[in-house]
Amino acid sequence: MRSRSWSSSRTERKTGAVTLPDTRSGSLSNTMKTILITLTALALVACANSSGVLAIGPDTFTISTSASPGKGGVPAAKRIAYEEATDECTKRGRKVFALSEKTSSPTWTEGMASMELNFRCLSPDDPEFQRQRLQSTPDKILEIRQK
Description:
26% of the residues lie in helices and 29% in strands. By secondary structure, the protein is an alpha+beta fold. The N and C termini lie far apart (92 Å).
C-alpha cells in the first residue's frame, strides 16, 4: 500500500499506511466554522416565503410575505404578496382591491423584510372598486399631553 499525504504545510500524523491531517491543530474546526458561516449567509441571502392567501371574510383575504435582503427585501415581499393576491382573485374571475398594507424593513435582530396585505376580490363593475387611496397603518402613535 502506498502512503498518501496532503499539503506539506499541514500538520500530519501517520496511522498505518495512510497519512491523515492532524485534527488536534484545529484546522478542521476552522473549516467547519467557515462552512457554517457560508451556509448561514446563503440561507439569509436566498430566503423568501409566504403564508399563502387566507380568507378573513366574504371576498376579503390577507397574506403575509417576507424576503431576505438578498432576494430584494421589502420590494420583493410586496411583489410576492400582490402576485399571490392577483392569482387568487383571477381564479375567482375578479380583481384585487387592496384594503391595507404594512411593511417592515429588516433589522439586525430580524433579517427579513415583511409585507402584510389585506385585500378583497371584487368584480371590475363593483361600486366599491374605484380609485384606491392606500394609507399605511402607523407603527406608533404619539400622544401629547399638555398640562
